[in-house]
Amino acid sequence: MNEQAADTAAALRAMSSDSPSVLLALLPIMAAVLIAFLIIGLALPVLPLHVRNDLGFSPFVVGLVAGSQFAASLLSRVWAGRTCDGQGPKRAVMLGLIAAVAAGMLYLGSLPLVGQPVLSVAILLAGRGVLGGAESFIITGATVWGLARVGSQNAGKVIAWMGMAMFLAFATSAPLGIAIYQRSGFIGVAGITTGVMIAIARVIGETAPLLITVGATDSINNNVFEGNMMTLPVYVYRQYAAGLVPCAPGDAACIPTINYDRAWSAALVLILVVMLLNLVARGVSRWFAPKTRA
After folding, report:
1. Which CATH number characterizes residue 125's domain?
2. Which end of the chain has less neighbouring CB within 10 Å, N or C?
3. Contact 254, 248 (CB under 8 A)
4. Full-model pTM
5. Cβ(237)–Cβ(206) below 8 Å
6. Dist CA 135 CA 131 (whole Å)
7. pLDDT, tens digit, for every residue of 227-282?
């Protein structure tokens, strides 16, 4: 028992002493896992209430609907692993997010058919099955993606951090799902599931379309109709990825952090542009809003 306790303490010390580079490399993937499973978990405490109270089915059907997601997740694990090995982990995560959006659409599609309970619960079962597959693709792809970023020597840390993000999401989603259900019903859970998953998929897949459509360049291109351009998000990424500049001793003109400075400056410009456009949109909506009499 003493040896087991010592091994556990050593493992905890190793987790707490992660190098910043490993943790920083995993943070974006952990955030995606956290948000995705937070949304996936919203329906877990709500579905039994919806199937029992709104559709009027027995506890057996309630259990069938709730358990169908986990059965689908189990059956799709091997498929998710093959997708990661053959097409890459990022594609697996994207496919999982797309499947989660489809599941949310099925949730929404079941609501107009509440008056036909059998058809409505059949659509819910299909949505739960699709969501179970989405769960497999997201967590499997995220784990393999993390291993690719920090190396197999940090496999234990990757599995631990991804699991922590997933179970934190499940622990948080239960009370949040009940609160949403009490305020707006099952349609609120279905709408959030669809909308947030679309947002995550857009964020993860944003870089590739930018690089394909406008490319990247190391100089200013004054011709907006020909050649590659550098968008601000891609510029921020490339400057930050370039890292520190090696400077010769005594070279006062060399700034080692120039790439980081450029990245932060471009990020500030991007924030100001978005804020300005937001203010303009608010002004337009206010100026052209229909005038109502008091």
Report:
1. 1.20.1250.20
2. C
3. yes
4. 0.59
5. no
6. 6
7. 666 777 777 777 888 888 888 888 878 888 888 888 888 888 878 887 887 777 77
